[in-house]
Amino acid sequence: MKLIRQNRAPADADARKAIKPVICYPVDTLPKPDMRLYATARETLELIDTVIVEPRDASVFRVPAGHFFRIISVEGAQVGDLDLWAAGNLDERFYSGKTRALHGTHLSTGDRMWSGFPYLRPMATITWDTLDWYGFDADGGSVHDVIGTRCDPYTHHLLSGQDYHHCCHSNLTRALAAETGLTLQQTETHVHDVLNVFMCTGFTQDTHQYFMKASPVRPGDYLEFFAEIDLLGALSACPGGDCSAEHSSDTAACYPLKVEVYKPDQKALEGWCSPDSSGYSGGHGERPGC
Ligand SMILES: [Zn+2]
User: Fold this and answer.
1) Does 11 reside within a domain?
2) Which residues have CB less than 5 Å away from ligand 1 (the ion)?
3) What is the pLDDT at residue 290?
4) 83: CA distance to ligand 1 center in Å?
5) 189 located within any domain
6) How far does residue 148's CA lie from ligand 1's centre (Å)?
7) Per the domain annotation, does 34 fall within a domain?
8) pLDDT tens-place string over residues 148-182
9) Ligand 1 centroid to 67 CA: how many Å?
10) Which positions fall inside the DUF1989 domain (predicted)?
11) 168 C-alpha vs ligand 1 centroid, how far in Å?
């Protein structure tokens, strides 16, 4: 909210402001995940891979379509920044903004992480959230947001004039570069806005600014996903730790995060198939002769 208003309200301002909102994207026609099938499949899980993410660093992991993965809090309250790509195609990546438009500001069980254009398909579906009890608090805060972006050295430099090299953006860049063999500069363009796992955020009620507060996550809590397509993931253990005070520095207490990848009994997934990319024709109303 701006403190200085340059224009007087028109005579019918109250009437214009009193119009009731409508939901931008009613989700009645959104393809629904079969949560009962996922619930059955998750009873059959076999652990096949474990990846540790060190504090103020990031690690990559791979999850085949039809498998599950968990991001787990270990040792202490810690926030994680999650990027997802289609394995083998870095151009298809998580689209935080459209996911927010479809599912709201914070994600939980049953919500999906959608890829960007021209793909726009579910990359992963959240199947369990041990923090689902939190809901929204009195400040309007909740966990697992898609409203923040990722802490980055550019904004930090803009605001402080300082260089800091272990922001989530840089952590994700280093981890993806090591995985792909691309240079840091090439890799950086593939790093994108994240799902802020375990982070507790919202907008202040007076100034509508983005805020964070200490994450309610405790060791043993986890967020679980079903991989709808073959995934390459990268997770950064944010230098903000539980994000109770500041990020983009070495001040906060930071802890590792753990990623576990699980294979379900394939018989339990009967009837499920990996989603296709968007069915839009791609014509964009092209004019003849263009
Ligand atoms: Zn961060």
Assistant:
1) no
2) 151, 168, 238
3) 61
4) 12
5) yes
6) 10
7) no
8) 999 999 999 999 999 999 999 999 999 999 999 99
9) 27
10) 52-232
11) 4
